[in-house]
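TL;DR need structure tokens for one chain.
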Amino acid sequence: MLPLLAWATGAAFFFYAWVLRVAPSVIVEDLMREFAVGGAVLGNLSALYFYGYSGMQLPVGVLLDRFGPRRLMTVAALVCAGGCVLFAQSPTLWGVGLGRFLIGASAAFSLVGAMAIAGQWFPARRFALLSGLAMMTGMAGGVFGQAPVSLSVAEYGWIAIAAWLTVRDKRAGPVGSSPRIWSGLKTALSNRQTWYNAISGLGATGPILAFAGLWGVPFLTLAYDLERTSAAAVASLMIVGFGVGAPLTGWLSDRIGRRRPPLVAGLALCLMALAVLIHVTTLPIWAVGCLCFLTGFGGSAQIVNFAAARESNPVAVSGTTIGVVNGLVTGGGALFQPLIGWLLDVAWSGGIAEGLPVYALADYQFALSALLVGTTIGLGCAVAMRETYCRAFDSA
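>> reply
TL;DR here they are.
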């Protein structure tokens, strides 16, 4: 029972991490007006979460292999609460950016921590399913991304307490094991399969992190003349699709004993639905919502990358491997959010209304096409990766 509660604590941590991850998407214009910035600056401000989150993935994986998740997740939850306070209260762009960076860096321990618990305390045949359920929990946080930051601060305090009470460290490296740490890191980074999984995961999650996480709301507002709250509701269906698809894909992959077919099929679906969503803007709103859902549902196949990468490397470096993959996966936000903002500024004609840059629909379509390129590259890596047949590396 205690391992299940510990895994649930990690999943809850990931839920609130997603609440804060997507919160800027519904206040794009407010942030631009408050700090007098354009799309490129705002994209970089929002992406500071991902700079912290992605940048910490390698250290997180190594630290989890070395020390175990209990103390690390407890401290991380407390740091995340402090970042929330700074983001909400700071009157300067610098302070807001620092708060968002701290939130991302500390939230890096959430999903990887839940996966570390699943890998240590549950059978290998349940890993993809538990990872998918944790991902679904995070997606639920994305749907509720408009929740007040003060609520998140309170919940992170409870998460820190719960982590200390429920999480136990089953396996940790010996004292003075720095050479083994670097050896494990080299093992994961030198394995081609690690990179195939990481890049295909990046291609799958780019639309979720960049479209649903920031630029989808202003795009849908312009393309379909929607109110901001309605556009946010439609964009959130991409997160809903990801949340529904992650546990189903994880279960299916475990059930059929294959990793590559569900991943390739999911990425192909994600690419087709996203292409129509961006470039066909004469659809009824219900069809737009369906495309958002299908884009997220297809992209949720990314959950298989964690299991496949873990099965392609020795068990002793599983945390490091997951950290490498998750670093690139969440790097989709760090890459695509500012890239799309920069492409918008490149295509911008120079028009300004009420102190805000006015982007045309064609500008958004040009900028968002970067997501299609990323997903296509991810699909190619999924096709190239080796099938593990759901077997651990040591027994393969």
